[in-house]
Specification:
317 residues, alpha/beta, eleven-stranded mixed β-sheet, 11 helices, elongated
């Protein structure tokens, strides 16, 4: 059986802590933990916890003498990157089926010379292709919100709202909902870019010229997609009814259009999932939290839920 890889994340953040606290509550036979043994030994001694002996551990050799709690630098960024890169290599080698990632620091990543805007972009580079594109999907219970654009400046977003982008994204989402979430006929809703869905061109014409034509085309392909709807009403209703939303998934035009509403449910309830690649990746919806690192107060439930999500997925695919 292929395993679930768990990557350590930034060693100066809360990643190693929330992993260590999650491990006793999961099926260790399914896990391959990737990290640095000296970092985990520090935490084992600090919290009087031990990595279960049944956990398969892949040690990333690294000089951790310059790595200190809550201090991000090029060393923490490099070690975090090496852990994720190894997980990707193991996917390619058919050892690992999916990946649960602890948070890393984008600043540290770039200080180390890896010019990515996040883990999703690394995964795209390592596990994607011209036919496979990483998509960022946030999940809370039955609420699923996909981001059409991700970590980019707000001023650049309109240029990326294209028919091609919408069509490709929706096709990937529709396929993954069928294959990974076991939804036979997914029902998808598309957010508008502009307030009030553009008010027939008064508040913007992207809906009339780009978004709605893309939706119409997708419908001719047999994809059950609707919209575009005013994002404020659509998403507020979806979050309010997150255990039983009207649609199986929602496509949001940009990061902060949807995530404030989604994350209002609580970080312990929300998972960040990367779909559309050779392996499914899940992570907590929070960051490295350097301000509370190595203080034994980090809430590990989001990390635990990420791992359990992949455990349950092993049972159905």
């Amino acid at each position: 059986m292929k395993k679930i890889a768990i990557t350590m994340g930034d060693p100066a953040g809360i990643g190693p802590e929330i992993i260590l606290k999650s491990l006793p509550k999961i099926d260790s036979s399914k896990i391959l933990l990737i990290g640095n043994n000296k970092i985990f030994t520090r935490l084992e001694n600090l919290y009087n916890l031990k990595i279960p002996k049944t956990i398969e551990f892949y040690n990333i050799e690294y000089d951790v003498s310059n790595i200190q709690p809550a201090i991000e630098n090029k060393n923490t960024g490099e070690l975090a990157y090496l852990c994720l890169k190894k997980a990707c290599d193991l996917v390619i080698d058919n050892v690992v089926q999916s990946i649960a990632t602890a948070p890393l620091s984008k600043k540290a990543l770039n200080l180390a010379g890896y010019n990515y805007s996040g883990q999703t972009e690394i995964l795209q580079n390592e596990l994607g292709s011209l036919a496979e594109n990483a998509q960022m999907l946030f999940v809370a219970e039955k609420l699923r919100v996909l981001l059409l654009t991700r970590h980019i400046p707000l001023k650049n977003i309109p240029n990326l709202i294209t028919k091609e982008n919408i069509v490709n994204t929706a096709k990937i989402l529709n396929l993954e909902l069928k294959n990974k979430f076991n939804i036979k006929k997914p029902k998808i809703a598309m957010c508008s870019l502009n307030p009030h869905a553009g008010e027939n061109g008064i508040l913007g014409d992207e809906e009339l010229n780009v978004i709605n034509p893309a939706i119409n085309y997708l419908q001719t392909l047999g994809i059950d997609i609707y919209g575009s709807y005013s994002a404020d009403f659509l998403l507020s209703d979806a979050v309010k009814n997150y255990k039983n939303p009207k649609f199986d998934a929602y496509i949001s035009c940009y990061h902060d259009q949807s995530l404030p509403a989604v994350k209002s449910l609580g970080l312990d309830k929300v998972l960040n999932i990367t779909i559309g690649l050779k392996a499914l990746r899940v992570s907590p919806s929070h960051g490295t939290a350097f301000d509370i690192a190595y203080k034994n107060i980090a809430d590990y439930n989001s990390m635990l839920n990420a791992i359990k999500f992949l455990e349950n997925l092993l049972l159905i695919i």
